Amino acid sequence: MHTLCVHTLRKSCAQNWADALPMNVVKELMGHSDIETTAAYYNQVDADHERKAAAAIQGLLEQGQQEKNDVKKTYEQVSDVKEGCE
Fold first, then answer.
1. Neighbouring C-alpha atoms within 13 Å toward the C-beta of 28
2. Where are the domains positioned within the chain?
């Protein structure tokens, strides 16, 4: 059976913060005097982080493609209107 101690709770909390907050904020919340200490223990990249990063990049690419398509469609509509006026 595992025992739960305050240090384990502190590390767990800090890791949750590190997953969601900038490292300089985690440093302050943890009370570390040097950001290197924070980074050494809580700046880990795991498979979940990599999946989230890939999904974010894919979303940006899809958004950019959609915006490009919207601009092209608007341009075509404006061109059609201009042709109809001549």
1. 4
2. 1-44, 46-86
pTM score, whole prediction: 0.50
Neighbours of 27 (CB within 10 A): 22
Q: What six digits make up the tokens of 72?
A: 């092209």
* Maximum distance among all Cα pairs of the chain, rounded to whole angstroms: 84
Residue with tokens 């940006």: 60
Dump pLDDT digits (tens) for 12-21.
899 889 988 9
Read off φ and ψ for residue 2, nearest 5 degrees.
-90, 145
**By C-alpha distance, which of 28, 7, 1, 2 is closest to 17?**
28
